[in-house]
Design brief:
33% helix; 18 helices
Length: 486
């Protein structure tokens, strides 16, 4: 089991044909931190769709030659993926494209449905054939099913939202319209803006709007459907206010980029505040405060400012290595830490160090980082975490589907401190979370176990991957037997 990051969605609509693929490329590049498994862009022009999707980073998948193959268009939808459901293969790359009796659609999705497995079973029993293992295809099927019975794609989406339960920020494209929607709980962020040339831009985070020269207008409200066309923008609000808002608090702690503003709250300021709270809650004498790149840096600065202890650069990140959460297995994760981070000996040697990180999940990575600092000569290492302990599974887009490997579920704070080799350990207090967002309208279920929706009885996450594993195992055994016979 591994924690995985969110996906990122992007969309653009222009009054006249332009390089919407290029705009999407830079938008997805700004959202790369939300997904490093696969990416894709679908361009729409005069009713025709042109697409390219593959496994890999944005700059790997969309080379100069690939981008030049896209025609100019009036619309585009883009996606970066880190799968919380579905295997890592090209079939799960997004945006998903659908051709149906009334036209076509391209769909990009960020989040996780709680009832995806129930909905998928119902669709399969009625003859639906799935090509991927992600719940995004389930959403596409339901929207398409409703589209065949309605007069518009936005009405079909609205009807689909009546049965979708859980987290979903969607950007979809029909031949004439670009549409975005956010689930009534508002679990995942979504915002829109406009460029100087009049093009509308929709993105998971405001940093992507800035990257393509769009001025931020506002966040999409929970439950809201926005319809962009050559006639302008229309807001549909029939699902607004039907649920209490529950934005994922981990967006502020880890997922989002520091220069983004989520629901009116600066991510950078939220992390600074987390550091300030840690300094007041767990004061200690030290010589330097350092942050674990990247999401620990802002909290470290906040801790330094509140405590008066100098802030310094104690760890350097190899910018060409992805986040440790991306590793497919425990052995790979350890190896990746070795080459991802290095300690700055000049900063930490002989000093009492306060190390700020965003979370401790299994303890493996934290222990390795503490050892790096020890090997660099740090005299004391006091670990402070800008989040409460992970204690419960998440069903809304963060891939924590079991308590089995969560270290805080099985060990006390004192035991964890000893296991990672630190001199002291302190977590952000649960009651302080509201100070990060400025309100109490957030989801902290992975820390508290207080779920805003009904907990799914079967997520279906391993339904196909287990079968695939068994097939590979059998094939491997057959190959071994053949080699032995030879």
């Amino acid at each position: 089991m591994s924690i995985r990051e969110e996906c990122g969605v992007f969309g653009v609509l222009s009054e006249k044909p332009m390089d919407v693929a290029g705009i999407s490329y830079y938008g997805l590049y700004a959202l790369q931190h939300r997904g490093q498994e696969s990416c894709g862009i679908v361009v729409g022009e005069d009713g025709l769709f042109f697409s390219h999707k593959d496994l890999g980073l944005v700059n790997e998948v969309f080379t100069k030659d690939i981008l030049q193959q896209f025609p100019k268009g009036t619309m585009a939808v883009g996606h970066v993926r880190y799968g919380t459901t579905g295997a890592t293969n090209r079939n799960n790359c997004q945006p998903i494209e659908v051709n149906h009796q009334k036209g076509r659609m391209a769909l990009a999705h960020n989040g996780n449905l709680c009832n995806a497995e129930v909905l998928r079973n119902e669709l399969e029993l009625n003859g639906a054939i799935f090509h991927s293992t992600s719940d995004t295809e389930t959403i596409a099927y339901i929207i398409t099913k409703e589209r065949l019975k309605t007069n518009s794609i936005e009405e079909a989406l609205s009807r689909a939202m009546n049965v979708l339960e859980g987290a979903y920020s969607l950007v979809l494209m029909s031949p004439q319209k670009l549409i975005c929607a956010r689930d009534p709980y508002g679990f995942r962020p979504l915002c829109f803006g406009r460029r100087a040339d009049g093009a509308y831009v929709v993105a998971s985070e405001s940093c992507a709007l800035q990257a393509v020269g769009a001025n931020f207008i506002r966040d999409v409200e929970p439950g809201e459907i926005l319809v962009f066309s050559r006639d302008g923008m229309v807001s549909r609000r029939e699902h607004c206010g039907t649920k209490k808002k529950h934005l994922c608090i981990f967006e502020y702690i880890y997922f989002s980029r520091p220069d983004s503003v989520i629901d009116g709250i600066s991510v950078h300021k939220a992390r600074l505040r987390a550091g300030e709270i840690l300094a007041k809650t767990y004061p200690t004498e030290a010589d330097i405060v350092i942050g674990v790149p990247d999401s620990g840096l802002d909290a470290a600065l906040g801790y330094s400012q509140a405590s008066g202890i100098p802030y310094g650069i104690g760890l350097i990140k190899n910018k060409y290595i992805g986040r440790t959460f991306i590793s497919p297995g425990q052995d790979a994760r350890i190896d990746q830490v070795k080459i991802k981070l290095s300690a700055v000996e000049e900063s930490v040697k002989g000093k009492r160090v306060i190390m700020i990180d965003d979370s401790i999940v299994r303890g493996t990575t934290s222990g390795r980082i503490v050892k790096l600092l020890r090997d660099a000569g740090a005299k004391e290492i006091h670990v402070r975490i800008s989040a409460p302990p992970f204690l419960h599974p998440c069903y809304y887009g963060t891939d924590i589907d079991s308590e089995d490997h969560l270290i805080a579920c099985h060990h006390s704070e004192t035991e964890i401190c000893q296991m990672i080799g630190a001199d002291s350990l302190g977590y952000l207090p649960m009651e302080s979370l509201r100070e990060l967002s400025g309100n109490c309208y957030y989801c902290n279920a992975c820390f508290s176990g207080a779920y805003p929706t009904e907990i799914p009885k079967d997520t279906g996450k391993n339904r196909f991957e287990q079968k695939l594993s068994e097939i590979h195992k059998i094939n491997g055994e057959e190959r071994s037997s053949k080699h032995e016979n030879l």
